[in-house]
Amino acid sequence: MSNAGVTIFDGAVLRSIDLNLPELEHGVTGAQLLEISESKVSESLSGLSLPPHIKDAAISRVSAGDDVSFRITEFNREQASEKLGVFVSAVADALTDTPVVVSILDGSTLKLILEDEDDFAMLAENLFTDLDEEDKGKLPKRQIRKALSLMGAEMGVPPLSDFPILENIIKKHDADGDEELGQAQFAELLQPILQEIADVLHEKPITIVQNVEIFNGSKLRKILADEKTLKCLVEKMVKDNQGRADLIKNLMIENGKELGLPPLSSENESVALLYETIQSQLTKRDKETSEASAEEEFMDALQDILGRFAELLESTPVYSATTL
């Protein structure tokens, strides 16, 4: 059975966005320009609403940190196009460091399910069985809501919070209340509801952000190229009588997100093995290195270790479930 596919927005599509603003006959304020910029970016990203941290980063860059003054400043068409370019570049850069994983629900997955009688019959049976916890062979109509929730974005059904029209569809098909249905009746009620959801999504697709974080090494490479930032992170972690191995391990664990590292609990075997290998090598180095040279070699060792992580993540990005 087909699942709704996912799309990864990593900023690449924004690098070629048209920055011309022919619709502007007169000047615009910064506030208006931000609305135009966000709309153009969203349109290029299949209607995606920018995550707050990415939007804030773009506004900060285009306004040079003075959001209030920027919003009331007047810009002519040429200036507006230039500022639009800054905004778009900021979003693209942020997406390169922290790509966003989305599902674009356009009804196609549901239509595939509905067109295959065997697929739909199996789906309806599985949903009915999962919901019939007491094994009564009957379910109240209102359980249709839970069935749709169980299907979720993976099977092409958006959550009610992103798809409020779902409430109207459920009421239209009289799928509320306590009237009990057998398995066949349940399937008969579910089918037209899924069909209407598919039709609505075909007319107006919905983009759903997935709770997935991608670690691709981009953020880590930027930090490695900025020795000052790396040293600041190290200084925050330095403790008396702490060996180099423990210091680097704690640095990676406590500042992993800031460094762009996948969590130590990641199920990716390559990442787990790399953490284990690095810790072993660090412990060995601590025993072999004199205290006098330890401080001098520390930054080199740290950069070497983080460099290996960056190479691994670039060749094999790590996908990790997260809470948005």
Count of discrete structural domains: 3
> Which structural class do the helices and strands define?
alpha+beta
* Strand order, largest beta sheet: 1-4-7-8
Rg: 26 Å
Biggest sheet record: 4 strands, antiparallel
**Residue fraction in strands:** 5-15%
- State the end-to-end CA separation: 28 Å
What is the share of helical residues?
Answer: 55-70%
Mean pLDDT over the residues: 85
The total count of strands amounts to 8
- Give the count of helical stretches: 15
Order of helices and strands: EEHHHEHEHHEHHEHEHHHHHHE
Low-pLDDT ranges: none
User: What is the overall silhouette?
Assistant: flat
Protein name: EF-hand domain-containing protein
Organism: Brassica carinata
Domain EF-hand: 161-196
GO molecular function, one term: calcium ion binding
Strand and helix map with partners:
Layout: E1 6-9, E2 28-29, H1 30-44, H2 52-62, H3 67-72, E3 74-75, H4 77-97, E4 100-105, H5 108-115, H6 117-131, E5 139-140, H7 143-151, H8 165-172, E6 180-181, H9 183-203, E7 206-215, H10 218-224, H11 227-237, H12 244-254, H13 256-259, H14 269-288, H15 291-315, E8 318-321
Antiparallel strand pairs: 1-4, 2-3, 4-7, 5-6, 7-8
